[in-house]
Amino acid sequence: MLAPGTEMKDALERRGITRRQLVKFCSAMLGTLALPDRFLPQAMAAVAKARKPVLVWLEFQDCAGCSESMLRSSHPNVGEAVLDLLSWEYHETIMAGAGQAATRTLDRVVKEEKGKYLVVVEGSIPTAEGGIHCTIGGRAAIDIAREVCSNAAATIAVGACAFDGGLVAAKPNPTGAVGVHEALPGIKVINMAGCPHNPANTAAVLVHYLTFNDLPAVDQYSRPLFAYGRIIHDQCERRAHFDAGRFVTEWGDEGHRKGWCLYKMGCKGPEATFNCPIVQWNDHTSWPIRAGHGCIGCASPRFWDHMSPFYERLPSVPGFGVEMTATKLGLGLVGAALVGVTGHGLASTLRPAAPPAPPPDSVRKEN
Amino acid sequence: MSRIVVDPVTRIEGHLRIEAQLDGGKLTDAWSSGTMFRGIEMILQGRDPREAWIWTQRICGVCTTVHSIASVRAVEDALGIEVPDNARIVRNLIAGSQMVQDHVIHFYHLHALDWVDVASALKADPAKTSQIAQSISDCSKSSTTYFRDVQRRVKAVVDSGQLSLFASGYWGHPAYNLPPELNLLAVAHYLEALEWQKDFIRMHAILGGKNPHPQSFLVGGMSTAMDPNEPAAVINPERIEVLRDLARSARRFVSDYYIPDVLAVAPYYKDWFSRGEGLGNFLSYGDYSSGDQRDPGTFLFPRGVVLGRDLTRVHPVDPAKITESVAHSWYEYAGGDAQPKHPSAGETNPKYTGPKPPFDHLDVDAKYSWLKAPRYDGQPMEVGPLARMVVGYAAGRKEIRDAVDGALKALNAPPSVLFSTLGRLAARALEAQIMANQLEGWVDQLAFNLEHGNTAIFNAARWDPGSWPASASGFGLHEAPRGSLGHWIEIDHKAIRNYQAVVPTTWNAGPRDAQGVRGAYEASLLNTPVADPNRPLEILRTVHSFDPCLACAVHMVDARGREYTIPRIS
Amino acid sequence: MQPQMKPAAAPVPPERAPRKLAHPRMRIGPAIAVYVWQYPLRLAHWGLVLSIGLLAFTGYYIHNPFIVGQTKTTFLMGTFRFAHEAFAMCFIAFFLIRIYLFFAGDRWVKLSAMAPVSRARWKEMIEVAKFYAFIRPRPLSKVGHNPLAAASYLGIYALIFVEIVTGLVMFNWLAQNPVLTVLVGWIPGYIDIQNIRLIHFCLMFVFIAFGIVHVHMCLIVSSAEKRGLLDSIFTGYKVVPVDELEEDDRAAIEAARDHRVRA
User: Fold this and answer.
1) Which of residues 40-99 of C touch A (CB under 8 A)?
2) What is the pLDDT of residues B327-385, one digit of tens each?
3) What pLDDT score was predicted for residue B392?
4) A23, A100, A367, B385: most buried, per Cβ within 10 A?
5) SS (H, E, C) B299-324
């Protein structure tokens, strides 16, 4: 069972892949998913299947950053994902056809592959004014999403916008933007939060699906645990500096040059969950904290409103402008207490001496 | 007479819809519509100006970084901050590598399929393809075996019946002119470019932590701390060598693949040197300073305006002459829609008056786009690589003159062919070459500074909002891959009061103005022949030649503190 | 019904001699020293005071590390965080003692004695406020807490509860303890972790401000009453004129004494 038989060999040849390429690729995937080697044959068999699962990639209120991010995927690289692993039949940013040729393709997939295809959603879905803030081929985004996602085997929401509306849904959310989960309650969706999503994680989810015909275990926000189960702070290369109390206090200072902790510069590593420090970006080259800038917590729920101001430790106090920090407000409160107490104390010294206590009866009355 | 609708226009960034009038096999009119709106300018109000770049960066993930650069420049202008030389170099490197990578992706992955018939590549003789490849380039991947492998891979995909991204292409369309051998070459390089772009853009990962959306900008400099002796410094001698290696790989890729491929493909499509001429007015803010960013004389791409295809005169740029019209855009102006407004006095009051979805046609006589119509001195302008090359050529900039003249000589054509669909494609390739040749020089400067103890990367004088005036305003200009970009900001009580951006694709893809004057896309589509109205490949060729980026283009002008609420329908 | 009170010709023998009775302005009359604050209550009180102080100091450092370590051997933030977590555990223990006393403590510290549940107590609260506002010349003297103080303490205990919960949420954000995850792990799904942090931080200032006002009020009332209010939190005893004892107080004192006598 371990060695692929002639059947798999034929299948691979048909696909123009060598067995060595396949082993290499599947091992890398299992590594990302933290699965043991014994799953290798299963993964290889799934990947080498004669008929490739169909994937469609929808884009709504997006910046195409998540599409671009997918193009930076290394394991598999996007060429492998698009041509060898899956049949990537609809993706506006890179597909060959346009206009009717494109929309017809989407219609065909929904009809012919009903219940079998995967759908990736990028960008938020506007709900205000009947969805006029995003139309494709004259149809509102919400209509397309409902039809395509409800007929899919599973929906993968990539990026912060598809997760929970992202930047578009930040206050005051002018277009009533929501994420897939909120727009289409009851749809099976896995959220690959992040701005953008990390293609290594999304590729791992795709391969997990191909291998086990199911999505990986998720947290309360339907984000896969293997990617979102730990806070960045716990995995950060600068954590030792945090514990030691060595902090960057000004951009470009000695601590900054020595790679000390960015906590005082507003880094949201202690708040954010993501596997950014482990998987890193662009073929494991770097990640934001390595580049000397604090984390902005981009994989966290509603991070644009909750993690900002990005250069402050704490969010702004609701009801006050960006100028008012919690410390200023708190010190104000304590100051007011001191002033009040001092004033009251001074006034009390002027208080006339209490008259002799009235007899017990009147005390009762007074009470 | 019939109406052609292309929606979605694919292989672009964002949501673009083209409606065109076909009469006697030629387009007699066209309308360009952006069909998505997010309202980022409203979301920005009241937030910390120092983090505006993080937000505006998300205007676009394809031209990621460009809005960050324009944004930090706008805030720095407002607060009077001068950034250290190293920050200028790092920004140049980030923006320059973005430009090269973006142009390569545009040519191979977004535009090539308009010219290359993938299905025809199966009929090619790999040996002949190899010969062609070796005759046009020094690229080492040019053996018969290599091309046979690629062909086998494509054949496997075609035989499987699952054509993936290529399923919906216009294969076999009569407008495809390339011989099978060149088609195979192009398909092979499509895959090569896919590999190269992800490897090369690690430059952004090194200087910004990740791509898309690198995260190392700061108002006042960059977060890429430099130290010649620290292993954890973002820029140290080891990192410099990686950067240098990547810069060289850009130079090699552009000279071994991009330029030869463009020169090989162009002769088969000579018609397209006279189609898609467009407006003939070109605008460039100029950028990529070798010294002081505030002095346009130091720019690699000069600042200027060229009017009416007149290469003998470069007019100066006055940002005060920029206006925007909403006569055909889904917005309203307080003083009436007929009067255009300068961005610093602009308004964004979204008011959708288009048809209720689902719809078949837009009412193009009324408002029909989420884009505004920017004008310079009342005239529509084309921006982008062609505009930069035209302005640079007219201004007599040596690098640009040499590159353009060299290409024209190779193609045996006069400068007038620049004003065309293919001219835009060629200008983009030449610009990528000029930029790729620059990158290593910037890495060298960085290495020199590092070696000589100049590690300043950030100007801390105005980081603390306590040091700011009560109110301030400023603007930042940048030449993004797709053209001239400007951000305008007003700061009040340490928070953003107004934020505005006038974006390249708004210039190019904008609708008509109050006088009914067409935007650049609309003008360039006129007189284009369309062989098959059901497969309007020709429309895609011209529209793609601009490299549309709609997420950027949909409007960003300020809302002047006017909050509005829309009843939620859900 | 007015229960017949024995006129206290001689004071009820106090467990300890009353103090400060002989002050010149003090009304001459029989008074007793009442053991109002049992030692577990005083322990909880001083435990909370001490731990709030230490938590505020260490917590502020965690928020804004004002000392930046320079050498390789420092473990500043680690130490501060450890101290903060250790003090927090003590803080929780003292808080639990106080909660226990709500149900098992003396009649003056029971929840039922403190909650502003009756109209009379609301009226008394106004009377107390009138004293602070210089409208009423004399404080409203009570054996236990006056109703306004009692209500404000309940408010502070509620805020302490919020502080403990938000602290545990943050602790569990890193610790991912299975028990805590069940108890508080669901909270960040409703209140974002950053807002949890904000609440936790802002409440610190509320406690400090409360502490200032609390000490001030005690000083003012103590000096006006001259009944050893301030001393009572150290010794447990308050001096109460016998004729001011409410019937329930009296019964409680009697019971306590009877109990002691029997023992």
Assistant:
1) 63-65, 67-70, 72, 74-78, 80-81
2) 999 988 888 888 888 887 777 788 899 998 888 889 999 999 999 999 999 999 999 99
3) 96
4) B385
5) EEECCEEECCCCCCCCECCCHHHEEE
Q: Which residue has the tokens 């069940």?
A: C182
Fold of A51-228: Rossmann fold (3.40.50)
Q: How many domains does chain B have?
A: 1
Q: What is the pLDDT of residues B53-67, one digit of tens each?
A: 999 999 998 888 999
Tens digits of residue pLDDT in C150-176: 999 999 999 999 999 999 999 999 888
What are the chain B neighbours of A297 within 8 Å (beta carbons)?
A: none
Helices A19-32, A199-212: axis angle to 10 degrees equals 110
Query: Any idea what the CATH number is for the domain that residue B175 is in?
Result: 1.10.645.10
B36 to A135: CB separation less than 8 angstroms, yes or no: yes
User: Pairing relation of β-strands B471-480 and B373-376?
Assistant: unpaired
What mean pLDDT, rounded, does chain B reach?
A: 91
State the residue range of the domain holding B122: 2-332+336-553
Model confidence at A179: pLDDT above 90: yes
Q: CA–CA separation, B27 vs B251, rounded Å?
A: 39
Distances (CA, A) of A324 to A338, B48, B477, C193, C247: 20, 11, 31, 20, 52
- Report the C-alpha gap between B456 and B79 in whole angstroms: 19
Q: What is the distance between the alpha carbons of residues A291 and B127, in angstroms, rounded to a whole number? A: 46
Domain with CATH 4.10.480.10 in chain A: 231-334
Q: How high is the ipTM of this complex?
A: 0.92
For A316, list phi and psi in degrees, rounded to 5: -70, 150
Contact residues for B446 (Cβ-Cβ < 8 A; gap 6+): B86, B89, B90, B93, B226, B235, B240, B243
Give A171-201 as a DSSP string.
Answer: TT-TT-EE-HHHHSTT--EEEE-SSS--HHH
Q: Is C137 on the interface with A (CB under 8 A)?
A: yes
Distance CA B455, CA C246 (A): 78
**B and C adjacent (3 or more CB pairs under 8 angstroms):** no
B1 Cα to chain A: minimum distance (Å): 19
Indicate the class that CATH gives domain A231-334: few secondary structures
